[in-house]
Amino acid sequence: MDLSKLETVKVDLVEGIAWGTMNRPEKRKAMSPQVHEEMIAALRELAVQPDAKALVLTVASESGSAGQDFSFAEAEIAELRSPRAV
Question: What predicted TM-score, i.e. pTM, was given to this entire model?
Answer without folding.
Answer: 0.66
